[in-house]
Write a structure and sequence with these properties.
By secondary structure, the protein is α/β, with parallel strands linked by helices. It has a single domain, classed as Rossmann fold, CATH 3.40.50.300. The chain is 51% helix and 13% strand. A five-stranded parallel β-sheet has the order 2-3-1-4-5, sandwiched between helices. Helix 2 packs across helix 3, helix 3 runs antiparallel to helix 5 and helix 5 crosses helix 8. This is Thymidylate kinase.
Length: 232
């Protein structure tokens, strides 16, 4: 029985995730597919409003607490994602649990180098990963890779808590070390593909479509069901 595909866009802030994910939605709909577009964090839910205030610097949260709130925000949508996939609706996500893991662990790395003493409970990769175990696993994750210099030149950069150069450097490092070359977390969670987001809009869109098409054919050919995210 046909099912929808779960496609995730990841990357640093201002890498073009929102624009490219919406372009993909338009292209899939033009091809006759039913598509649901979602963005994380979803700031419209009660949990999402807490996250929104934190990201805008209007409130503070313990690092462990805010990480769990981000994860809970994704769990709020889990049943919706599952039901749409089962109904043969493809779900396109602008950020997912990769961002939650990468940003929290990057923040932990920054704290360990700037503080004279280590935090009482370090935010390890395993700790950051565990709350999201069991969420729907992506069929394809597209990492829009952009240099920090180019990101800083794009409009609106620096307006929220995590849009700081040192933080973005660490986030890019975590993405690269764990999901783009070290370990099997990316393979466990869904195929992870790097896309050069520094190219022109149309070139990036074409590369995205090529990877989506290849994934689509593979899922259809092999009859893969919807998986769940697992730890190593």
């Amino acid at each position: 029985m046909a099912r929808g595909k779960l496609i995730v866009f990841e990357g640093l802030d201002r890498s073009g995730k929102s624009s490219q994910s919406l372009r993909l939605v338009e292209k899939l709909e033009a091809d006759g597919h039913h598509v649901l577009h979602m963005r994380f964090p979803d700031r419209t839910t009660p949990i999402g409003r807490l996250i929104d205030a934190y990201l805008k610097g209007e409130s503070n949260q313990d690092d462990h607490v805010i990480h769990l709130l981000f994860s809970a925000n994704r769990w709020e949508a889990s049943s919706t994602i599952h039901s749409h996939l089962a109904a043969n609706t493809t779900v396109v996500l602008d950020r997912y649990f990769y961002s939650g893991i990468a940003y929290t662990h990057a923040k932990s790395l920054l704290s360990s180098t700037s503080s004279p003493s280590p935090p009482p409970s370090p935010l390890t990769l395993d700790w950051c990963t565990s709350p999201d175990v069991g969420l729907p696993r992506p069929d394809l994750t597209l990492f829009l890779d952009l240099t920090l210099e180019e990101a800083a030149r794009r409009g609106g950069y620096g307006g929220e808590r995590y849009e700081k150069r040192e933080m973005q450097e660490r986030v890019r490092e975590v993405f690269g070390r764990v999901w783009m070359g070290e370990g099997d977390a990316g393979r466990k969670a869904g195929e992870f593909v790097r896309v050069d987001a520094g190219k022109g809009m149309e070139e990036v869109e074409e590369e995205v479509w090529m990877n989506v098409r290849d994934m689509w054919e593979s899922v259809e050919r092999e009859g893969k069901g919807v998986g769940v995210f697992e730890m190593k």
